[in-house]
Amino acid sequence: MASRTTCTSAVLGSLVLTLLTGPARAADGAPRTPAPDTPALPARAASALPARGAPAAHELPAPDTAALDGLLRTALTRGAPGAMARVDDHRTAYDDHATVHQATEGSADRGDARAMDTADRFRIGSVTKTFTAVVLLQLAAEGRVRLDTSVDHYLPGLLPDDRITVRHVLGHRSGLYDYTEDLFAATALGFEAVRTQVFTYRQLLDRSLRHPRTHAPGAAYAYSNTNYVVAGLLVEKLTGHPVRTEYENRIIKPLKLSDTFYVHPDTQIPGRHAHGYLTPDEAKGALVDATDQTASWAQSAGALISSTRDLNTFFSALLGGRLLPAAQLTEMERWNPAGTAQAYGLGLRRRDLSCGISVYGHTGAVQGFYTYAFTSKDGLRSLAAVANTSNNGAVHETMLATLEAAFCGRKTAARAAAPAPRRASVHDLAR
């Protein structure tokens, strides 16, 4: 049964603020406090302020909440069991939420018809890549890795070309073939073949290296999950810790992201969560509940779990200069063309909207979930939107339009409200 809820902090007043500033809780409901050795967050860097000509969050048009709600309903008509979105406006920092708009449509679980809720956790797919890039850029700030040094310097003999640098890997300019093209050539069958498998990073990389490289290092942008498998190997070699430990100590605990987890190779999403439904390739084929899986095929390229609130907090902190020093945030924002109206830096995507505003974040597609997490240049307005399906191009295009409603307001949201459907493809996966 479909249902929807919409709220704004103007209506909820002090109740919302109380909820937003309450103690963080772990999956078992116990209060969570940062570990004593949690690294301190850097002070807000001057370079993290809005670029000249980039509007601050308070100068952006008001979100078109009616259009946003309408897009979620459209996603349901195009095949999503459920959809949700959350817009946060922050007064001065990532943890200072001034207003909130939340909207949900449809079901989080088709089995019991439980309504979608913005408190539900979900798999965020390739939004994980931004977390991985932040860890490596923090290591660069500490002098433990150099962006323009060969990957093989740190992992001797790993790659067939010692010209591939750390920067090439983080910016998808290495030329390494994307192994997921083979794994998921048949969408549902490919997923069932790996649902419970546990891979090593080296096994995933070997699948890529069976193929010729797509281009010379640095010659072009070509999105490949293999790059972030290499990034995961780098994190673990440089720190001596699993990526889970680095995510937790460097990002999750400092920002008190109480809904964000890296559970690989466990298969279940902790606590309250939305189910994810994979659309098969066959027309009119039954949706596949893909919620439980190891996500081992993705790991540091796409295996994190989070919530809309945590994603808004993360990207607000990142663009607000709270996770990286100024020099590393500047490196992250060195853009290369990456398709129509978008560019890619180091684990960060820029999308240029029809109203002339650019937003910064990442998209994610993992079996059963499409995720869209973006923020303004100053990090003070953030959107996280989710549909609990994947391999559905019409739903993907509809959910992308939530960016227009959240950041451009009424002038352009109407044009974005009914995008032309398109057929999904394997290239939608883990983006």
Sum this structure up briefly.
The chain is α+β, with helices and mostly antiparallel strands and 431 residues long. It has helices spanning 9-12, 14-21, 65-77, 128-141, 151-154, 166-170, 180-183, 187-194, 201-209, 225-239, 243-252, 308-319, 326-332, 393-400, 402-407, 410-416, and strands at 6-8, 82-90, 97-109, 114-115, 122-123, 277-278, 288-289, 305-306, 336-337, 342-344, 349-352, 358-366, 369-375, 381-387, 389-390. Strand 9 (336-337) and strand 10 (342-344) form a beta hairpin.
Key words describing this protein structure:
globular; disordered N terminus; 31% helix
Blueprint of the fold:
Elements (H helix, E strand, L loop, with lengths): L5 E3 H4 L1 H8 L43 H13 L4 E9 L6 E13 L4 E2 L6 E2 L4 H14 L9 H4 L11 H5 L9 H4 L3 H8 L6 H9 L15 H15 L3 H10 L24 E2 L9 E2 L15 E2 L1 H12 L6 H7 L3 E2 L4 E3 L4 E4 L5 E9 L2 E7 L5 E7 L1 E2 L2 H8 L1 H6 L2 H7 L15
Parallel strand pairs: 6-15
Antiparallel strand pairs: 1-3, 2-3, 2-14, 3-4, 5-8, 6-7, 9-10, 10-11, 11-12, 12-13, 13-14
Helix pairs in contact: 3-14, 4-10, 4-11, 4-13, 9-10
Characterization of the model:
The protein is an alpha+beta fold and 431 residues long. The protein is 31% helix and 16% strand. The strands form 3 sheets. Strands 1, 2, 3, 4, 9, 10, 11, 12, 13 and 14 form a 10-stranded antiparallel sheet that branches. α3 runs antiparallel to α14 (393-400), α4 (128-141) packs across α10 (225-239) and α4 crosses α11. The longest helix is centred in the middle third of the chain and has 15 residues, at 225-239. The model is unreliable at 1-38, 44-52 and 416-430 (pLDDT under 50).
